[in-house]
Amino acid sequence: MTRHQRTAGRRTSALAALLVLLLATACGAGTTDSAGTSGGGSPTVRIALGVDASYAPLYLAAQRGMFKKAGLDVRLVKVEGGPAAAQAVTAGTAQISANADSTALPQMVSNPRLRALGAFQSSGRYLKVVLRKGIESPRQIRTMASIQGIGLYATHEYLRHHGIDPDTVKIRQSAPQEIPTMLQRGDIDGYILFDPWVTKGVEAGGQLSGTIGDFGVTYVQWLLADQKWLEENQKLAGKVFKVVADADRLVTDDPHAAALAAHEQAQLPVAGTEKAIGEITFESRALTSADVTSSRRIVDFLREQRLIKSTPDLDTVLLRGWYDRYAR
Fold first, then answer.
1. Which terminus in the chain has less CB density within 10 A, N or C?
2. pLDDT 10s digits, 190-208
3. Same domain, 182 and 230
4. What does the pLDDT look like over 96-151, one tens digit per residue?
5. Would you tell me how many other CB atoms lie within 10 Å of the CB of residue 28?
6. Which of 186, 215, 244 finishes a domain?
């Protein structure tokens, strides 16, 4: 081998080593998998969640250092709500997410590895119907606004409950913060949402016209994880859920303290949050056959609306018994 060939070979080896290093750095930059640790301690677990009173147990747990006391390094990742939380788990920027059943199920179609670990709260009163001034009967409604997931499902059920074919009403999907303004402008006749957007709609001239429980709708909030991560972190996920369960009980016992924590963690108004907390049942539990039945109704609705093309395997994605095994 000539001197020139040896030199070229060394350069090629050096370039190859540099390429491997760059690829490793690039792959690591976008991941927040809990296999990594913070300061060599407990693996970091990121929980993706929205910003409203329904997440009070997580805010309270963070504010009081409950995760740390349990030997956990948990970070709350606040997203815009809706499917964004589950999408963070799919993308690997969070290990666990908090999502309502009707929001989680479509995500389970696009990512069959998502798993519902258990429920940590439910309500038939938290979401309310707001109608525009002058709308005296649901039959006067011509246009409504809706958020994705539970909002759209509840809107259809509300119309059907009143004998109205949803196809005869224009339903405009929008972000929560935009909807009260749409009502004030007269662009829509009503909507179904949670606070603070209910209060803002009433302040804008709307009228409160009931809750989703009035027409037989409730939602359940789940904790989700990706199956690949979960297989290696069952006990870790169980410890996280145990803290959430403890925080559920504290929220129920002291709504004012929970509202203060929500204000500190997410800048939510204290009075409105405390009122909303009273409309939610904060209780952690295992998923049951009743959850499967309810989920099947939601999935049938989503397929009917052509919002999903297939049905998730509910016996696989809903981990019945997982909570009792790992989180009790």
1. N
2. 999 998 899 999 999 999 9
3. no
4. 999 999 999 999 999 999 999 999 999 999 999 999 999 999 999 999 999 988 89
5. 10
6. 215
Please give the share of the chain, as a percent, with pLDDT higher than 70: 88
- Residue 48 resides in a domain: yes
CB 240 within 8 A of CB 73: no
Q: SS3 for the chain, per residue?
A: CCHHHHHHHHHHHHHHHHHHHHHHHHHHHCCCCCCCECCCCCEEEEEEECCCHHHHHHHHHHHCCHHHHCCCEEEEEECCCCCHHHHHHHHCCCCEEEEEHHHHHHHHHHCCCEEEEEEEEEECCCCEEEECCCCCCHHHCCEEEECCCHHHHHHHHHHHHCCCCHHHCEEEECCHHHHHHHHHHCCCCEEEECCCHHHHHHHCCCEEEEEHHHHCCCEEEEEEEEHHHHHHCHHHHHHHHHHHHHHHHHHHHCHHHHHHHHHHHHCCCHHHHHHHHCCCECCCECCCHHHHHHHHHHHHHHHHCCCCCCCCCHHHHECCCHHHHHCC
Q: Of 23 and 60, which is predicted with more confidence? A: 60
pTM given for the model: 0.82
Q: Domain for residue 266, yes or no?
A: yes
Q: Round to whole Å and give the CA distance between 46 and 41.
A: 15
Q: Is the dihedral of CA 310, 316, 320, 322 positive or negative?
A: negative
Residue 103: HSE in the Cβ half-sphere, 13 Å Cα cutoff: 23
pLDDT of residue 263: 97
53 and 166 in one domain? no
Contacts 24+ apart (CB under 8 A), 179-185: 179/145, 179/147, 180/130, 180/204, 180/206, 182/145, 183/130, 183/132, 183/145
For residue range 149-158, list pLDDT tens digits in order. Answer: 889 999 999 9
Residues 247 and 197 in one domain: no
* Average pLDDT of the residues in 276-289: 97
Q: What is the predicted pLDDT for the residue at 40?
A: 52
Q: Answer yes or no: do 141 and 202 share one domain.
A: yes
